[in-house]
Amino acid sequence: MLVDRPFSDVGQSPADPIFYAPPGGLAALIMLIEPSERREPLLTTLEIAKLLKVSPRCLSNWRHRGGGPKFLRLSNSAVRYRFRDIEDWLEARLVSQKAR
Fold this sequence. Notes:
A hairpin with a 5-residue loop joins strand 2 and strand 3. The chain is mainly alpha-helical. The chain is extended and about 55 Å long. The chain contains five helices and three strands; from the N terminus they run H-H-E-H-H-E-E-H. Helices cover 39% and strands 9% of the residues. The protein has a three-stranded antiparallel β-sheet with strand order 1-3-2. The chain folds into two domains: 7-37, no CATH class; 42-92. Helix 3 packs across helix 4 (56-65).
């Protein structure tokens, strides 16, 4: 749980950012993390479906049949995507010439 309180009120330190959010919010919290240790956020099926303008069911079908973007299966019901994998997948499907 993130809270906007000084360290002394929370009993935590910046080394434990799970419990401390600086007054600047999430952006300030991310800045506490070293650039080499920052992780990109994981996106849900619904977020990726909206981004690609396809249905969540379409993404589900791609996962089961293959051919869709790479994904992470956190549990049987929790699937997440990394934005860079979506970009790579789209780039691989880029067509530079008109098909005849």
